[in-house]
Amino acid sequence: xxxxxxxxxxxxxxxxxxxxxxxxxxxxxxxxxxxxxxxxxxxxxxxxxxxxxxxxxxxxxxxxxxxxxxxxxxxxxxxxxxxxxxxxxxxxxxxxxxxxxxxxxxxxxxxxxxxxxxxxxxxxxxxxxxxxxxxxxxxxxxxxxxxxxxxxxxxxxxxxxxxxxxxxxxxxxxxxxxxxxxxxxxxxxxxxxxxxxxxxxxxxxxxxxxxxxxxxxxxxxxxxxxxxxxxxxxxxxxxxxxxxxxxxxxxxxxxxxxxxxxxxxxxxxxxxxxxxxxxxxxxxxxxxxxxxxxxxxxxxxxxxxxxxxxxxxxxxxxxxxxxxxxxxxxxxxxxxxxxxxxxxxxxxxxxxxxxxxxx
Length: 359
Fold this sequence. Notes:
By secondary structure, the protein is of the alpha+beta class.
């Protein structure tokens, strides 16, 4: 073990007068229960966490007064549940962005995302995102929060993503992610010689020194678990497979940086001074991004219950880096005396010691 969205909620915009509403009466059988718990049972297409979030943000009224998640219901209350997520999605314009669709049915889409594609609009990237492309390809996704997106890949990480086409499918996929039954496997090229297979298990939160970055933190972060398998070792790099148990922002990139093996080419967490042959350095510079690819995705279909698995081939620029590494020679020496301290600025380790321990 290497001891070092996830579906992340976002702030909703103020609800416009055009927001859709659900009106209902609390059933008497839920008397004595919390408001969020009773609504979760009456609206199974929404997760309890989403309902709780909506109540906290004032989108749920009880007898014409703003409700609170913990208030007890007695039965017979008139509920108005406004749907801010539909307004949020409607604020974004459909755009004709090519999508590489690996699989599609009435409930889900599986997409092979290219590099240089932001998943969800945010500051600096309000257009040209995967969400904009999804709205163009499938206009009905206007009716689904975040156009059906349930997990994300970084802008320059390539590979497989699943998108829900209905609210019910999205809720079920989010539950699977939270239960860690969705399996996501990545291929990566890391700096240095990773000595053995193992696990990185930490808390990840915002970097206290740089709010644009994530970091391993001693407390206050979210649990993050990454399993590492070494596929090939080279003179200056390692080709590895990373399996996610959790899906925190920048998880693999942060974990490998903290383990002193940052991803090759990573502009945010990498080491641009990592020594390697000129042809390898040129291939990594041509890659122009972190060497990370989501190559396999496994899930349980939200409607049929069928176990499904999808694979994605490595992108050509990633293959070029591997070819350059294989053109040198594969590491064949002893792993006992490897100095895997990939020396670079380490001022933001936040007091967390990273120790390699075999699984």
